[in-house]
Amino acid sequence: MAMDSFIYVIFGASGDLTKRKLVPAIYSLYVQNLLPENFTLLGVSRTGLTDEQFRMRMTTALEQFNETDNTDKIQEFAGKLFYSTLQYDDSQSYEKLWDRLISLKNINDVSENIIYYLSTPPELYGVIPQRLAEAKLNNQAEGWKRLIIEKPFGYDLTSALLLKDMLLKDWKEDQLYRIDHYLGKETVQNLMVTRFSNGIFEPLWNSKYIDHVEITSSESLGVEQRGGYYDKSGALRDMVQNHLLQLVALTAMEPPATAQPAAIRNEILKVFQSLRPIDKDMVRDVALRGQYLSSTIGGTDVKGYRNEEGVRQDSKTETYVALKFYIDNWRWGGVPFYIRTGKRLPTRVTEVIIHFKPTPHSLFSGQTNCSSCNQLVMRIQPDEGILLKFGMKIPGAGFEVQNVNMEFHYSGLSEQRIPSAYERLIFDSIKGDPTLFARSEELIEAWKFLMPVLEVWRDNEEIPLHGYPSGTWGPENADDFIVKDGTGWRYPCENLADNGKYCEL
Questions:
Q1: Which amino acids are annotated catalytic?
Q2: Domains of the chain, first to last
Q3: Confidence of residue 486 (pLDDT cuts 50, 70, 90)
């Protein structure tokens, strides 16, 4: 089916995200012939650039961050790039923007279908859409208009509700695409496919057979050059409120009636609505926070968080979070969910682990209450794949049992190219498919769930902020946080099949 022509407008086009992710993703779609021949990309920001200067910048970026093996079409692609300088809170700038869009439409024979991508600081998420609406740039009489908003969607529940109301005042819900790049990862989408396309998993996917669910998203890097932003955010806002809770929803959702966007998003929303509210008096028992300290990793000295550029010397911002919670519905009643995320941990890895219940009685010697037995590990990144851990007999006399692995690696699909998350999501936004984009109701429910933790951490100075040496798996008592319930964290290595707290990476 032929795709309608369109203009892609990137606000904040002089920034890092545009050159590293957005333009390379759009170029990848271009070389695969997934875009109409006469599409146009307009970069917009406060920085004064000409069309040619912007093209030169993006050409250099594509030579460095190209996500395909094809470099032959870079110059051809660059010819479709244009640029306009704009002051974000100046109404007259948007009138000039409209003039430029009409000019590009006429010159390039493009329709008035327009996507606006806000690759800007969050404080502009309310300003730019309002100014666009004032200039009638959201009017769909002559073509559809869509608005893509990067995270974070608000700083807390109050600001999220305010932003929601501001957007819906001028834009329809079906025009809004709230992007979470985690949902664009092939392996995240495979959570649904693994469950709902295989009859062997879904019958076991409930409280009768599952002991607990564990989700880990760890990063080996620190805050790098984002100290100023991160110190106002922290791990709970930066990772849990969006990425990790979305993984929880995809893991826990009921089977949708169809594969249509509305059906899938309705089931995701139901999960958020079923999260058991966190009592403020229980925050100390169900939420743990930490902050990385200076250390030596592989012979290299690494700064502590408070020594990073842009971070306050007395900062209490968490770089590590562990949470325990429940989903109160028939499928998951009584099953604890454990999630954790942190910076400066031993490796970069994201995975979902389903811990099945052990056998009710151990028949064989060596078959103990093994915390790593009967696990289904769905690896999001790196070494993407699926791992099943179960017991088998050791060859020889008797019935000695050993834990073994059965694994599948996505790299085994060598003939298939795995698109980047941004490539998939940008393509979906062009097609008008909102399946992998968050609805406002989901985000509001997520904020409601986390607000008791944020408020207690803010108001109660007795709640500890645990330090942990960079390169370790978080605070020492992070183990106690989960072990006290008779289980333990899985300590993943870079390779899917390996695990161990001190494994070599």
A1: 243
A2: 7-150 (3.40.50.720), 183-417+439-483 (3.30.360.10)
A3: low
